[in-house]
């Protein structure tokens, strides 16, 4: 069973996550040949102050 762990900055709506989950499931089924019910997706909302790129917090980039 493929499990996808998706980390996003917080603030996405349930509708956006629902649409993304559908698209990810469809792509996974197409590429891996598994059934849709086998695809697990975990969304993790992350605060910009808890994420850094290049040594800089995303919250400092705003």
TrEMBL record:
Domain 4-oxalocrotonate tautomerase-like residues, every copy: 2-60
Top-level taxonomic group: Bacteria
Species the sequence originates in: Azospirillum doebereinerae
Gene3D superfamilies: Macrophage Migration Inhibitory Factor (3.30.429.10)
Keywords from the UniProt entry: Isomerase
Identification of the protein by name: 4-oxalocrotonate tautomerase
Molecular function via GO: isomerase activity
Keyword Disulfide bond belongs to the record: no
NCBIfam families tied to this protein: PRK00745.1
């Amino acid at each position: 069973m493929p499990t996808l762990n998706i980390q996003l900055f917080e603030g996405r709506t349930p509708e956006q996550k629902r649409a993304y989950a559908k698209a990810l499931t469809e792509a996974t089924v197409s590429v891996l040949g598994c059934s849709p019910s086998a695809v697990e997706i975990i969304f993790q909302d992350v605060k910009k102050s808890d994420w850094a790129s290049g040594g800089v917090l995303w919250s400092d980039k705003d």
